[in-house]
Design a protein that fits this description.
The protein is α/β, with parallel strands linked by helices and 746 residues long. The protein contains 25 helices and 33 strands. Strand 10, helix 5 and strand 11 form a beta-alpha-beta unit.
Length: 746
């Protein structure tokens, strides 16, 4: 789809490409950026949109060949294709929103350094199209690296070139040229500087002295580009911002350049690569006692902590049938009412008792299209199994393991057919559990469904958030493939709120839209030193491994951890992060301010983490991140806690023990204290009521209907970060509310 239409070398190692990308070309504006990915094994590379041609539906990128990923890009020729191109992302240039007549009264100079010349071009071009003349300063190491000079001269007569070695133009840096122009009585109302971080820093220092407002672009910091990884954190006037969501352009006088430079330096210098052990031993010796709960086979702890193979190996047919016979098939099953998607649990287990696996699968398929996923990651101990009657005097029936067994059988044997269409269509935003559940349910009701996913792979948190040793990706892909066979159309690389909007979808003829975009923006503690180099969000860390293959040979996405990792938090995501770090060779520990009894993660995940050698620092609360003179993390300063009276959650409130400060040695700190929604979708949808937590407010007496007619929402974007099964339940509820809404319109 993303065909290369033009390729040109602007210098020995700077490449220009025009790429066919109709939707992106239609929406792109100056200042925005995109993400390209060469193939399955390539890095997600954020690049500024250097130009766009709406008529020919192309966008232009310019990049410097500096490593493996850009070498792979440069190996592509005209007629070849990028696997993924997504955008536009980020905020458009602030000037686009200003009054044109007021802009004409100002004198603006653009300062472009190195490859940073490329993102300056569309902004200067926009000014030229408005009939506004601007000045341009181009800086480069030498004449061979001066790019786009002729293109700029075609837009404005005031183009000034300087080179470090004096081989072209002024012998000096861009700050020298700016000082020279000001000394010659040039009066500037605004400076826009884009280029290397160090260049932007010194430009900002100079313009602050000259009292000239300045804008800089922090696109060198960006990794994922959609706000989910938190890697592009930057301090702006003392407040943490995300370059890819809040920027990339910021007030140049408010940026903490030293911290940003440290983060960028470590990003470039990191060369950690981890292989995957393919020879994990499997213990086949354990036998299930028919009178007791099934005990599934597990990979041996010492071996599995070095590989990414699935830990829990599930049940055999004999084991599953024997376990199913423990079910009482209650007339008033409490397990069903405790299931967020209302699965007929006695029904599918009853068929399994008779070794009718196919019939069991058919029963299960009526209620869930993600049985293999739910059987692995749902907190059954708090839901169906927690309500099991058998569990009152004994261990509850292993409902999750039985669901997983039947779900896995279905992936291999159960045929899926689509339902005749009713002529109505619904747009679904997000391909995570909420979006998948809504899409599947609506498809079975006869609707044409388009699912829009911002990333290059489907599955949302199922793909980027949960490691393969807990949820294998072939299982996720298999479940999505079955939903696709229901007639659902999936569209990757579509950022709703940027590439298109909810309003545009409704205008294009969608009868309703479901927002299931999740809550992927990471939270941080706000403690001193938290922006030191080596502090990551769990989202960033897990995404690089789960989505981008950072643990595998052949992928150009190395992880960014050291040898001593401290994970702050104790939810399921925290356990995932700590266990992944262990598998990548680090000494890994959990730091949690409450006791073991209050740990929110699933008991099974805590047990597995302990077996694998993860250290638990409980009743311990971080108060500062310690870093050396380079800004690199060296430790985590903590205090000991004790539990007081219960708080509003029912858990005893942790209190600081005075004088208990101590330091945990660490070179990487992973913050895993929750996530929150970003405003990509909500901020671009008219008349959409939000809560004070920036989640979507649903209407009274409705589970998923919003304040905007025809727009429904569910999952983490409504509740805040929660579980996979709760998101699925919301998606399923939304499907039926949408169905009633559309029927009511007719």
């Amino acid at each position: 789809m993303f065909e290369i239409m033009k390729k040109e070398y602007l210098s020995e190692n700077i490449v220009l490409m025009d790429i066919k990308a109709p939707k992106l070309a239609k929406k792109a504006m100056p200042g925005e950026f995109l993400i390209v990915k060469v193939d399955e094994f390539g890095e997600r590379i954020p690049l500024t949109v250097c130009d766009y041609d709406r008529k020919y539906e192309t966008i232009t990128i310019i990049y410097q060949i500096v490593g493996k990923s850009t070498e792979d890009m440069a190996a592509l020729e005209v007629g070849d294709h990028f696997q993924d191109v997504v955008g536009p992302l980020g905020q458009m240039s602030e000037f686009v929103h200003e009054d044109i007549e007021e802009l004409k009264k100002q004198k603006i100079v653009f300062i472009a350094g190195g490859v940073g010349t490329a993102p300056v071009y569309p902004q200067v071009k926009w000014f030229a199209e408005q009939g506004i003349e601007v000045d341009v300063i181009i800086g480069a190491r030498n004449k061979d690296y001066v790019i786009l000079e002729n293109e700029f001269r075609a837009l404005t007569p005031n183009v000034y070139v300087c080179t470090d070695d004096g081989s072209q133009g002024l012998h000096g840096r861009v700050t020298d040229m700016l000082s020279k122009l000001v000394a010659e009585d040039k009066k500037y109302d605004h400076v826009v500087a884009i280029g290397p971080m160090i260049m932007m820093k010194f430009v900002a220092l100079l313009t602050k002295e000259l009292n000239i407002p300045t804008t800089v672009s922090l696109n060198p910091l960006m990794v994922d580009g959609t706000g989910m990884c938190g890697a592009c954190r930057v301090v702006i006037d003392g407040e943490v911002k995300f370059a890819c969501v809040d920027g990339p352009e910021f007030d140049g006088h408010k940026v903490d350049y030293d911290e940003a430079q440290n983060r960028l330096r470590m990003k470039k210098e990191n060369k950690l690569e981890h292989g995957e052990n393919k020879n994990c031993p499997i213990d086949h010796e354990e036998v299930i006692d028919p009178k007791k709960r099934a005990n599934p086979r597990m990979l041996e702890a010492a071996a599995r902590s070095k590989c990414f193979e699935e830990v829990n190996l599930g049940l055999t047919l004999d084991e599953a049938v024997r376990e199913s016979k423990r079910c009482l098939e209650c007339k008033n099953p409490r397990c069903v009412s405790a299931c967020p998607v209302g699965i007929d649990i006695p029904g599918f287990i009853g068929e399994l008792k008779n070794v009718e696996v196919g019939k069991s699968a058919e029963v299960l398929a009526k209620y869930t299209k993600l049985a293999s996923v739910c059987g692995r990651v749902c907190p059954q101990e708090k839901q169906c199994e927690g309500s099991c009657i058998v569990g009152i005097k004994s261990e509850p029936v292993a409902i999750g393991l039985l669901e997983r067994f039947v779900g896995d059988w279905s992936l291999k044997h159960l045929e899926v057919t689509s339902t005749p269409k009713n002529g109505k269509k619904v747009g679904v935003i997000g391909s995570g559990p909420a979006g998948l559940a809504a899409a599947a349910e609506l498809a079975t009701l006869g609707y044409d469904i388009d699912v829009f996913e911002s990333l290059h792979k489907l599955g949302g948190v199922l793909t980027y958030g949960i490691p393969g040793f807990r949820l294998p990706k072939d299982i996720v892909n298999g479940e999505i493939g079955r939903i696709e066979k229901l007639g659902v159309d999936f569209h990757t690389n579509v950022v709703v709120g940027k590439t298109t909007t909810v309003d545009e979808l409704l205008d294009e003829g969608y009868d309703a839209v479901f927002i299931g975009s999740g809550a992927g923006l990471p939270r941080f503690m706000g403690i001193p030193g938290e922006n030191s180099v080596g502090v990551l969000s769990a989202n960033e860390f897990l995404t690089r491994v789960n989505l981008m293959g950072g643990n595998k040979e052949g992928y150009h996405t190395p992880t960014t951890i050291g040898k001593k990792v401290a994970v702050v938090g104790a939810g399921n995501v925290s356990m995932d992060a700590a266990r992944v770090a262990k598998r990548l060779g680090a000494d890994s520990r959990i730091v949690y301010r409450r006791s073991e009894e209050e740990i929110p993660a699933r008991h099974e995940e805590v047990e597995h983490a302990m077996e694998e050698g993860i250290e638990f620092n409980l009743l311990t609360n971080p108060i500062a991140v310690i870093a050396d003179e380079t800004g690199q993390v060296t430790g985590l300063k903590c205090v000991k806690m004790e539990l007081g009276e219960a708080d509003e959650s029912g858990r005893r409130r942790p209190q600081t023990i005075e004088g208990s400060e101590f330091v945990i040695e660490a070179d990487t700190v992973i913050m895993s204290i929750g996530t929150m929604p970003n405003d990509l979708v909500t901020g671009t949808t008219k008349d959409l009521e939000l809560t004070r937590w920036n989640t979507i407010q649903t209407m009274e007496n409705k589970e998923t209907a919003t304040s905007r007619e025809g727009v429904f929402a569910g999952g983490d974007i409504v509740t805040g970060a929660a579980t996979v099964i709760l998101a699925m339940g919301a998606g399923k509820d939304a499907a039926h509310e949408i169905h009633e809404y559309i029927k009511g319109k007719n």
